[in-house]
Specification:
about 40% helix; Uridine Diphospho-n-acetylenolpyruvylglucosamine Reductase, domain 3; alpha+beta; ATP-binding (chains A, B); Lysidine-tRNA-synth_C (chains A, B); ligase (chains A, B); nucleotide-binding (chains A, B); Phenylalanyl-tRNA Synthetase, Chain B, domain 3; globular; homodimer; Rossmann fold
């Protein structure tokens, strides 16, 4: 593997052999192999280790392990501790995305400060294949299938053409030490199942499966790059900016083909799904859509896109396929799951086939009623609030998740019985609400 | 399933409920389900059955089965027998492609003659997923991942949103009869392995895996359509036609981005791979490439593309990734395989790592020698031909497969020992030669 690695490096990234680079080392198999390959090649490098403090003592033991390895081999090392959970909460990110953001921000500052010519990470071909399959299982566009490039700005991934097996063999032959991440077995449950049940069978389909797969991803990336540049050009022509307001001519938009693709690519960055925009286009003038940060108004033959002012929002549409939505004081997530779990005030399991998408999230209206869980019959919302000893102000601040005219969930408080999943529901979606106030 | 099918049909193909359509029925599970669903819906339709005569008595029994079903239910039926093997040979196609061509040509003539409004085939979601995985395993571009659309001209595939399991359940609940195709177990070995070992595990990754997969394919198709229209436009600008000769400005070609994608899309239809064209672009003026039907000449700052005149050809380049190549009197195919088999005069197994691509196919030159299998040491080609009692004319007509300056194979006659795969070869390619004379 060392010879093949060195050849690959010399051919594709000749600069790293005589420049100072930074290698991201977690202490796991992949990054320890990368660091050892560099050591064996005699190249100059430094190490960066992130301690995300997500696994208590184990995270600290990882740090200690990497620091000792660096000291033993006289390799300069940077270590930083992050309060990942706190960052995730304050930035409304899941833990994985938070860790990712923190990591790359720090790498970027290290590159600036110490003039490293590149940051090397240990992603390999099996990582790329696993990500491809996960995205495929969830449904994705071209971008979700293109994977991570070998070089992206200062980030270089020199192990991408190698399989996990090759890395493991190298580690064993050279008697390397590494740390097993206990979360591999739990957090990455899905990834592990792919690794052990699907990938080995895929590889048996063709002797060069992984190689062919990486080649396919390269082609897909080229296609994605072409699509992106075409979309960017049409956006420049179509989106007329005036201060914070963008105006789009609907007749001009309709000339684009394939229409759905353009609608997706043009409005997705602002948080609007293609089906909801298509729906808006066939609606009456005056209707509007809201995303986290923007609103899109149909005004006769124009679409008007502007930053959203939360104080005036009273209605939000939530379309199937949009994973998360943020209201003034709540973060909601929707996920299709294998079966129903326990419904609580902050988490409900719905029978997807009873729902009419897009769902509507709105405030209380006069005459609102629902069929509360834990009670018989229906109840007026004003009566429900009184019985629950809530104020009028609280009722007015309360968000309601609705399917058509029916209330599905008094968000964070009580679900309606009619839409809850049963054990025979063929399609179940879980909606979680996290309070932001 | 019937209700869901009828809803899907009414929503996406409302015209089929009151028009006369043609259903392609092989007699297998899928097409028998489609025909029975139509019967249950009370729609008017006729049946077309192709007898490809590929499985002797079994093919005739299939035909009889479908004819009897149609007669029993008073459904008009068209039956046609094809000499598929003969067609495959005369059109230089593999059997599967030949059957496909024959089938769609016949359907098209039936539509013309009898004014059917559409031809319906029974492809379902699992078919689409299996094809996707096969193409992925071989390495593919965007087109190989987009799959078959629900509607393509007159062809409609109304079962595409349904899984094989749904079809099977419907067939069992309604006590349908169908014929099992014995070649499913043999010809489609790979497809069967995918069906039983890979697909069930993929479906366990997500409760809506198949649905999400079909949605992804729809997106990919939209992307492919956008890419195709962009490429077509640049082709119109770049390819200057004068009679049978097309001239392409190299500086203009080089302005395109992503360059490799454009090169692939522009020249692949003429049988030239992107790597070989990139190689040509960096070669001296005067060098040329040959494909089955075209030649591409670098002439200073231009590429000249024209139909190929076989009589003058003496050299052909065969690049890695090109599956098949046709010479004046031989059809050659190259395939990467799991391990070596028995080398014969018409089929050789090579150690891919010993080869220098593109391979060169050329005629005899003075001084040519090789290391024939079954002999010791090297031998002059003229001596070899004399010993084998071949004429001078035969020697001059003989094609030689070469890696750089070395002869790899005296095509259809004798292999060279140096390039043959051994049991330890990590990458083996099988090259087959079929005589066309």
């Amino acid at each position: 593997m060392f010879t093949k690695f060195k050849q690959h490096l010399d051919q594709h990234f000749p600069e790293v052999s005589h420049q100072l680079v930074l290698i991201a080392v977690s202490g796991g198999l992949d990054s320890m192999v990368l660091a050892n390959l560099f050591k064996e090649a005699g190249y100059t490098f430094a190490i960066a280790h992130c301690n995300f403090k997500l696994r208590a003592n184990e995270s600290d033991a990882d740090e200690q392990f990497v620091v000792q390895w660096a000291q033993r081999h006289h390799i300069p090392i940077h270590v930083k501790k992050f309060d990942t959970k706190q960052y995730a909460t304050s930035h409304k990110l899941n833990t994985q995305l938070a860790a990712r953001e923190l990591r790359y921000k720090w790498f970027s500052s290290l590159v600036q400060e110490h003039s490293y010519s590149a940051v090397l990470t240990a992603h390999h071909a099996d990582d790329a294949l696993e990500t491809f399959l996960i995205n495929l299982s969830r449904g994705t566009g071209l971008d979700g299938l293109t994977g991570i490039p070998e070089k992206n700005g200062a980030i270089v991934r020199p192990l991408l053409p190698f399989s996990r097996l090759e890395l493991k063999s190298y580690a064993e032959e050279n008697k390397l030490e590494w740390r097993e991440d206990s979360s591999n077995a739990t957090i990455n449950y899905l990834r592990n199942r792919i690794r052990h049940t699907i990938v080995p069978n895929l590889k048996m389909m063709h002797p060069e499966f992984l190689h062919n797969f990486l080649r396919t991803q390269t082609y897909l990336r080229q296609n994605a790059s072409l699509v992106a540049s075409v979309i960017e050009k049409s956006k420049e022509e179509l989106f007329e900016k005036d201060g914070n307001v963008i105006t789009i001519s609907i007749p001009e938009l309709r000339k684009l083909h394939p229409f759905e693709l353009y609608v997706h690519e043009l409005f997705h960055p602002y948080g609007f799904s293609a089906p909801s925009v298509l729906d808006l286009l066939s609606s009456m003038s005056g209707k509007q859509l809201f995303s986290d940060a923007f609103r899109l108004l149909k005004d006769r033959e124009k679409l008007i896109l502007k930053s959203r002012d939360f104080s005036e929002v009273s209605q939000v549409l939530w379309d199937n396929g949009i994973d998360a939505i943020t209201l003034t004081n709540w973060a909601l997530t929707m996920e299709t799951v294998m079966g129903k779990g326990e419904t609580s005030s902050n988490c409900i399991y719905l029978d997807k086939e009873t729902l009419k998408f897009p769902l509507l999230i709105r405030k209380w209206e006069k005459g609102d009623y629902f069929y509360p869980t834990g009670m018989q019959g229906k109840k007026k919302l004003s009566k429900f609030f009184k019985d629950e000893k809530r104020t009028l102000f609280e009722k007015e601040q309360q968000w309601l998740l609705c399917s058509g005219k029916d209330i599905v969930w008094v968000i964070g408080l009580r679900a309606d019985r009619r839409f809850l999943a049963s054990t025979t529901s063929s399609s179940v979606c879980m909606i979680k609400a996290q309070s932001l106030s």
